Amino acid sequence: xxxxxxxxxxxxxxxxxxxxxxxxxxxxxxxxxxxxxxxxxxxxxxxxxxxxxxxxxxxxxxxxxxxxxxxxxxxxxxxxxxxxxxxxxxxxxxxxxxxxxxxxxxxxxxxxxxxxxxxxxxxxxxxxxxxxxxxxxxxxxxxxxxxxxxxxxxxxxxxxxxxxxxxxxxxxxxxxxxxxxxxxxxxxxxxxxxxxxxxxxxxxxxxx
Length: 208
Fold this sequence. Notes:
Helix content: over 70%
Number of strands: 0
Shape: globular
Order of helices and strands: HHHHHHH
Strand content: under 5%
Radius of gyration: 17 Å
């Protein structure tokens, strides 16, 4: 069990990852899916308010940061045309499901249900980026997801009251960011395996 003040260290690490992605977005090296990042901003901010209503205090800092970082990246994606990622019907469909989760929160007004529906909304919004990370890992920046996973993991290690309000959102963030990080880093890992096996073939995709 970590001291609660480690939440601030996790937040600092998460901020560094977000800054890396923000710079990559402005320069056009990363192309965030705007449906994903819109709801990645909205859902955590809803969860943040819900956590406060359920008595969560210092651990809610992670949730707040998880909402503010995608908001900054979303706004940055409009500064450089090269940062635009073409949306598909699938992306829009996931966005509609994410919106449904947000509406359900508005109807319930219950703290734990709000957190649950925020996780559902965030999860549906994550699907387009998960698919994009699998198909086009070069369009993503892995450091955001690694830093977010560390932030969420450190937050979980500070939890003393194991109720859903305290661990629900950090546990979800830890899971989804590990998945995306693994997908984005996959080509680099495959390249290292080929080199270790003595295969000189160059990978088709390079990731940042």
